[in-house]
Structure formats: C-alpha cells, structure tokens
Specification:
alpha/beta; binds NADPH dihydro-nicotinamide-adenine-dinucleotide phosphate
C-alpha cells in the first residue's frame, strides 16, 4: 500500500459545521443532532454534518412545493431553466478541483478519478440535461372519434421530487437525478447518504450562486431510516428517485404507498461477464479487471461474476492475477494510486465476510483475499476461482473488489445465458467475443438492462440506464431519463 502524500489545502466547506439547504437558507437540524463525516482512507473525522429528520424533510418539501406551485421554477421559460443549468455546470467546472478533492477526502477514491469521472461526468450531465429543458414536448394525435377533433398530449413536470442517493459516487449520483428533474420543471429535495454529504452540500452552495430561486433545490442530510424514510413517506412528494440497495428499494416502495407517489429505483446487481475463446484476451482481461476493481468494486453495474471459456481460462486468470497484484492500493490523494478504500469499516467487514464465506464454501482465492493492514478501510483486489452458483459470494451483491470466476465448456448459448441470468438481479452484462453471431445472440438472451460487447459497463448520458428484475424500476439518462420526471396529459378538443 502506498503512503498518502501531504494533503492539499482543506476546502472552505470543511472549516465549519455543515448545514442543510432549505428554501434558499442554510439551517441546522432542530434539536442539534450531528454526526461525524469520516475520511475512509484514514478513519479520521473530516467534518460534522447536521442530522435532519422528519421535521427538516417537511420544511424542505413545503419549500419545494411552494417553488413548484408558485411557478418559480416550472413556469420559468424552458430556455431560462436551461441557462441556469448551464450556469451551474460552469460553476461546477470552475470549482472542479475543489469538488474532486472533497470527493476524494470523503470516499478515498483516487483524485484523478474523482476529477475526471465524478466531477467530469457531473459537468457533462448538467449540460446534457440543460439541453432537454427546451426539447420536452407532447405531440398531436390522429384520433378516430366521430366528429372533428384536435387531440394532443402535453408533457408536464411531475411535481416535487425526493432524490435519495448512495455513497459510492456521491456527486455524480446527485447531479444525475437533480439535473433531469430540474430540466423537466420539477423542484427537488435531495437526501445524500449520511456517509458522503460533502459534495452535495458544496453543490448546494453553487446552486445558490447560480441564482436558482429559493426552494427549487433543497438538501437535507440525515440518516436513511429517518430523513430518507420521512422523504419516501411524505404525502407532499410526487415522486421518489432512489439509488441504493435492493432491500432499501423495497422499503421505499412500501413507504411510498401512502400517496402512490411515482417511484424510480436503481438498485443492486450481480452482473455477468462472458469471455469467449475467440475474444481479444488482452482487452478482455483489462476490461474485466476494470469492471470489478474500479471504485473498489463499489459500483452497482460492476461485472462481479466472470464466465471464461475453459480453453482460455488459465491465460485469463493468470492475466487477472497479474493485474490485481499490480494495482496500487492506497489513499486517493497519493499520485498513481488506482484503488482506494471501501467507504466504511462496516462495508469492509461485509466484504471480508463474503470472501470468508466463499473460502468456507470451497472457492479458492488466487489473488488478494484480505484487508490491507494499517489505517483506513482497504481490501486487496480479490479473485475467487472454483466458484459455484449456489455460493453466497456468487449470489449476493458484495459491493467490493471481489470477482467470482467460473468456466464454461461448449455450453449452448442458451445454457450459458441461463447461467448468466441465474440471479435475482438484471442490471448489466458484458460479452467479449469477435463473433458477431455470438454477440447478438447473447445480447438477446441476457436479462439485463445494459449490455456491452467488448467493453466494460460504461455509462453514457444518451443511453438509458436501469435494471431488469430486482435491479430496479425505470431508466435514467437519455430521453427516457428526463421524461421520467414528467406526467403525460391527454387532451382532446371537440371542434364541432
Ligand atoms: P442503502 O441502500 O442503505 O443506502 C442508499 C441510500 O438510501 C442512502 O442515502 C441511505 O441513507 C438511504 N436509506 C437507507 N435506508 C433508508 C430508508 N429506510 N428509507 C429511505 N432511504 C434510506 O445502502 P447501504 O449504505 O446500506 O449499503 C449496503 C449495500 O447496499 C452495499 O453493500 C451494496 O450492496 C448496496 N448498495 C448498492 C448501491 C447501488 O448503487 N446499487 C449503492 C449503495 C449501496 P444513509 O446512507 O444516510 O443511511
């Protein structure tokens, strides 16, 4: 493991107790409850966040409701909404280094990754969705009712939206929901994960600087089962968009039932990767390694089950072992580090528990397999071979740098796809082959919302992203992602 370099200057937001953004004002929770925010690469405290609960959620929802009903946001000209979103994109870009540093301090991920991926994607996402603000529309319909009719659809913002995001990609997840919701004319209450509030709160400062009307964007920090639950239950919320575990996704569905609010869920995955004998093996090895070790495996679309054709298995496993052994693990502030820590001590114990369960159930560890000694919550990049579909490590989402490897012989594509589909999840899949016939047939057979051929699961704003089965409801990104924040009204006018 590499020792951290001396950290850059601390961003100003860390110099004082963190507060929450409600109705354009920074407030602390009634009762004063607070929690430490921790750097997972050292275990040391970075800041103190305010723990909002049902009271603060209610204030935020009321503010968002006023901004929505009063028209401060939805009735602003679409071009003006686009302009403000672009202004926010420019502000995020101007403060990109500071936001990347905050993300690295709070998650431990490499600074270069935070700058290029987390912050870079956030800027792009704001620009992409700013474009949609002026391009959402209904359409005329040719109806067959007797008489003379003018019929059309109207696309309208769904209303006040609650956004609940996890800790693995905090800023990009927050922006990924805030940007399309605002583009569609909704107002929002954002609840960041309790472990990672820093970049969301800095984003809130930039929202005010950009000049968004009060109440359009509200940010309430707090515990999931308190603030998150209160948001999901609140009768004044028209839609919840959530990313996180499947278990909490189900709790959100139950909590939302009171007013039948719309629910969008981006949940877990146990995504298969197939390497066929004819694949470009160097690229496949690199892609499979990136697909599981990026962000220390804390990625919903991580390729966590690898199926390799037996004829090339030794070569691929040797290549993966070499790659895993060379990855530089350490503090994200150290130049050259590729793998940061897991987000918390609890998450590290959870991941180590899965590695132990694999070992106990007969898997063999050929790389990694342990925590990294010293401060911080690091786990070695780990490869398990001789795994079976019934093992816990193969069935459940680990959310860590752990790849479970199986081989296949000359199974039919039907049988192979069935092995890939043997999971309650259906988020992503990757296929490595040079044979177009195999690629297309596998694409059709796999039950996954996102399939990549000769590539690891890479997101793109133009491509809808979401899951089959228990990986979620709905899609983010693309036209579908922004239309998900609208309702469609059917209008027919009798012209007789
Ligand atoms: P959670 O699903 O608990 O957390 C995701 C978000 O939901 C956080 O903002 C959390 O708040 C909030 N939340 C938690 N409970 C509730 C609730 N009852 N009502 C409303 N919101 C709630 O993930 P964990 O942090 O517990 O991680 C556990 C596992 O979940 C991981 O190991 C991984 O397998 C999976 N996961 C999957 C993610 C994905 O992108 N698919 C992302 C994160 C986790 P708070 O953090 O403040 O509790």
């Amino acid at each position: 493991m590499n020792a951290p370099a001396s950290p850059p200057a601390r961003p100003a937001i860390l110099q004082q107790p963190l507060r929450m953004l409600v109705d354009g004002q920074w407030i602390s929770a009634r009762g004063g409850a607070r929690m430490d925010v921790t750097d997972p690469s050292t275990g040391q405290t970075l800041a103190s966040e305010s723990l909002g609960g049902a009271h603060e959620i209610d204030l935020a929802v009321q503010a968002a409701r006023r901004a929505f009903e009063g028209g401060a946001w939805p009735r602003l000209r679409p071009a003006e909404r686009a302009r403000l979103l672009r202004k926010l994109a420019d502000l995020v870009e101007r403060h990109a280094d500071e936001l990347a540093l905050l993300e690295t301090l709070n998650t431990g991920k490499p600074l270069g990754v935070a700058r290029m991926f987390d912050v870079g994607f956030s800027i792009e996402n704001l620009h992409y969705n700013a474009g949609w603000a002026t391009k959402l529309h209904g359409e005329t319909r040719a109806v067959s009712l007797p008489g003379d009719w003018q019929a059309y659809t109207l696309r309208e913002p769904v209303g006040v939206v609650g956004l609940i995001v996890p800790w693995n990609v905090p800023l990009a997840m927050a922006v990924g929901k805030v940007a399309p919701a605002l583009a569609a004319g909704c107002t929002v209450v954002l609840k960041p994960a309790e472990l990672t509030p820093l970049t969301a709160l800095r984003l809130g400062e930039l929202v005010l600087e950009a000049g968004f009307p009060p109440g359009v964007v509200n940010i309430v920090t707090g515990l999931g089962h308190e603030a998150g639950q209160a948001l999901a239950e609140h009768p004044g919320v028209d839609k919840i968009a959530f990313t996180g575990s499947t278990a909490v996704g189900k709790a959100i569905v139950a909590a939302s039932a009171g007013n039948l609010k719309r629910v969008a869920l981006e949940l877990g995955g146990k995504s298969p990767v197939f390497i066929f004998a004819d694949a470009d093996l160097e690229r496949a090895i690199e892609g499979a390694a990136r697909g599981i070790f990026s962000n220390s495996g804390q990625v919903c679309a991580a390729g966590s089950r690898l199926f390799i054709h037996r004829s090339v298995a030794d070569r691929v496993i040797a290549g993966l072992c070499e790659r895993a052994g060379k990855l530089r693990v350490g503090s994200g502030l150290t130049p050259g580090v590729e793998i940061g820590p897991l987000i918390s001590q609890r998450q590290r114990e959870r991941v180590l528990g899965y590695i132990d369960s694999g070992r106990e159930e007969g898997a063999q560890i050929v790389a990694g397999g342990a925590a990294v000694t010293g401060e911080g919550f690091f786990v070695q990049p780990t490869l398990l071979v001789n795994t079976r579909p019934d093992m816990r490590a193969v069935r459940e989402e680990i959310f860590g740098p752990v790849l479970c490897i199986q081989t296949f012989d000359d199974d039919s594509l039907e049988q192979l796809a069935a092995r890939g589909n043997d999971t309650e999840y259906g988020l992503s899949a990757s296929i490595w082959t040079r044979d177009l016939r195999i690629a297309h047939q596998m694409v059709r057979r796999l039950q996954a919302g996102n399939v990549r051929v000769n590539a690891a699961a890479a997101p793109d704003f133009a491509m809808p992203f979401g899951g089959y089965k228990q990986s979620g409801w709905g899609r983010e990104n693309g036209r579908e992602g922004v239309e998900a924040y609208t309702e469609l009204k059917s209008v027919a006018i009798d012209l007789n």
